Structures
1.
Amino acid sequence: QVQLVESGGGLVQPGGSLRLSCAASGSIFSANTMGWYRQAPGKERELVASITSDGSTNYADSVKGRFAISRDNAKNTVYLQMNSLKPEDTAVYYCNARIRRSLYDFSNTYWGEGTQVTVSS
């Protein structure tokens, strides 16, 4: 069993910063691509940023230059540093990971339950 637990969400003013963390736990042989998605009310869930096991990153155009994704492979943890936050960044942020549980299993996709990020004055 694999679980992803997010932390670091909250309420911030426009222009502020937050750092989200997501720790994977359980039976983990290896963690491949990890990333962050977000979903605002009435909107489709969208990819914010992703990072491969070797450090290659990908960002949504709306967050380039403001957000930075990183990971600690030894801890099976992925981070999202969010700077210069805007009201339109308000959403529930979900951690996502492709995880292989054992040598005899293939990778599967796992999701966290989400953490609320609210950017407001």
2.
Amino acid sequence: QVQLAESGGGLVQAGGSLRLSCGASGGTLNNYVMGWFRQAPGKERECVAAISSRGGSTFYVDSVKGRFTISKDSVSVNLQMNSLKPEDTAVYYCAARPIISYSYYTRRSAYDYWGQGTQVTVSS
């Protein structure tokens, strides 16, 4: 059993930065593949970043490459978001899959645990 909780969302102007963090209560994330998803109104929930359990492999959706950085340690996964754009506005969710893997996952169905989400709003 893993409880995930996101933090760090908020309102920021275009070009600004935010750092999201997702902490695990009740266990460590050493053996978890982690992902960050976002969902904007009227749009499908999409994977924006993912990281292997040991942190050696990462994924970024094309729209955030060069701007977002995912990282993890034993107790949290983080998403540093720079040069934010209005189109980044969404609810951001962290997700976890309990597996030791050198790879990552981008499908929603691959993840077992989810946080409640944190709102990120980027104004123009």
3.
Amino acid sequence: EVQLVESGGGLVQAGGSLRLSCAASGFTFDDYAIGWFRQAPGKEREGVSSISSGDGSTYYADSVKGRFTISSDNAGNTVYLQMNSLKPEDTAVYYCAASYYGLPKRPWLGDEYDYWGQGTQVTVSS
């Protein structure tokens, strides 16, 4: 079965860094994609960043571009989200999602993904 296991969330001061990990398993094909989403209380779910395991193509939301970096380790089926220069507005529950058919045409939309992890809390204090 497809499983997504997230780790790396925690508490950090503004300006600091965190690295989230998403370990994906149970896929039949190599060409899948992993997306990171976040949702803060009272706010809509936001697509943060995505990456294709097939060609390494990536997507970044404007709100994180230049601060966050997504990368993948295909050998270990792990995707990382390096978050630098964190701001209090980055505080949210971060979810890992998988698309079975590669990077979606609209990677910022949660409906494009087939599987979801349980989420990990990221809190940025001022």
4.
Amino acid sequence: QVRVVESGGGSVQPGGSLRLSCEASASGTAFGFTVMGWYRQAPGQRRELVATFTNSGRPDYADSVKDRFTISRNSAKNLMYLQMNSLKPEDTAVYFCTAEDYRGTYWGQGTQVTISS
């Protein structure tokens, strides 16, 4: 199986920055997986895409975070990051990382990000 773990969340004031980290690891028969992207879910809301890599490796962003967030990864080490700058209260959510292989998508437990003055 594939285990996905997010970290780096916390509480920050509007305009501040956070850097989220994601690490995926395999056990058993899992192989060939890739860290793919970040999602978030606010209270009472559906989970939404924040940033992801296309199959060509090009990053893509939700309009709400474009020019403020930057996604990066080291696929060989199964590591992925989300640099979040100029944070706004509406960015408050639980942030999730995903990894994929030929069988499907794997999710982490999420890390809480709270933006408040």
